[in-house]
């Protein structure tokens, strides 16, 4: 449990307990425990992606698609041009340009 106590210089100090650390690894465990909630979204994303890729039959189709893109360069260029066209459309449609000199 993380408690807040007053240190020797009369400022509030956060620690795992109100008494000084007994074991040298206690401060590391306390630090990791405090910052663990920041890792939950990343762990969930990676874990969910791994579960989907391991247990889904889509994995074989995605592998075939990547193999096809690696083998035939024109397909890769087609996807790149379509992606750039989509970016250009989104940029032109949703970017508020008030005056001309902004683009210059």
Folded structure, characterized:
The protein has 2 domains: 1-55, no CATH class; 57-96. It contains 3 helices and 2 strands, in the order E-E-H-H-H. The mean pLDDT is 75. The chain is mainly α and 104 residues long. It is 63% helix and 8% strand. It is flat, with a radius of gyration of 27 Å. A two-stranded antiparallel ribbon has the order 1-2.
Structural class: mainly alpha
Indicate the radius of gyration in whole angstroms: 27 Å
Question: What's the rounded overall pLDDT mean?
Answer: 75
How far apart the termini lie comes to: 57 Å
Number of helices: 3
Strand order of the largest sheet: 1-2
**How many β-strand stretches?**
2
**Coarse shape:** flat
Range of helix content:
55-70%
> Unreliable runs, pLDDT <50, ≥5 residues?
none
Order of helices and strands: EEHHH
Please write out the topology:
Blueprint: E1 3-6, E2 12-15, H1 26-55, H2 58-71, H3 73-94
Antiparallel strand pairs: 1-2
Helix pairs in contact: 2-3
Task: Describe the structure concisely for a colleague.
With 104 residues, the protein is mostly helical. 63% of the residues lie in helices and 8% in strands.
